[in-house]
Amino acid sequence: MPTHPALQVDKLHVTLSSQTLLQDVSFTVQPGTLLWLTGANGAGKSTLLRALVGLLPHKGNVLVSGVSPTTLTGRKCCVFVPDEPALYDDLTLREHAQFTARAYQDEQAESRTIDFLQRFRLTHHLDEFPTLHSKGMRQKLSLSLALGLSAPLLLLDEPFNGLDAEAQQVLRLALINRAEHGGAVVLSAHQAEIGEALTQHASRARVAVLREGTFVERGLPL
């Protein structure tokens, strides 16, 4: 059984160009929890997710499974999917699956990623390069790579953007299943109907609202 929270944030503060973007954000996410981040545009959702994985300078403490997310061990414990797919233009979809499995030293990740690519109906594109594909198809690849990994924490920034209705359903079920089997999921989604569908069907669901850089939680207590 895990001995540490999947994610522990204490007094996170982000300031860029003398502007405070996040102020004293503190919360904990236990294994098996799905946390939906919502809020108006510019409230700080993307800023928070990027700060959690060390992509933005910040003050305060962030621990993933008890270690810093910027260490080698911490990086293996969490997977971040940004709002814009970050892919290698010179690798095919199949090669992305192989590379990610090796990078994370996760032997089963390649086959799990291929399985998700099939669920997203990309089977016939496995040997193509992502530069040939639409944004929605690239998003499906990015999500398949993340879902194929067995990391304890999954962080996703607006993952439903650009997905067709069938793909949204695949992703919803995958995220709920991930949480039900002990993984922790933190995602931002501005679509109320999607967030509500997730939190209604995940047994340990929480909702947090970001307002002008502050964190206000509804639902289960911290």
UniProtKB/TrEMBL annotation:
GO molecular function terms listed in the Swiss-Prot or TrEMBL record: ATP binding; ATP hydrolysis activity
InterPro entries given in the database record: AAA+_ATPase, ABC_transporter-like_ATP-bd, ABC_Transporter_VariousFunc, P-loop_NTPase
Domain ABC transporter: from-to ranges: 7-222
Gene3D superfamilies for this protein: P-loop containing nucleotide triphosphate hydrolases
Matches recorded under Pfam families: ABC_tran
Alphabetical keyword list: ATP-binding, Nucleotide-binding, Plasmid, Transport
Superkingdom assignment: Bacteria
UniProt-recorded name of the protein: ABC-type multidrug transport system, ATPase component
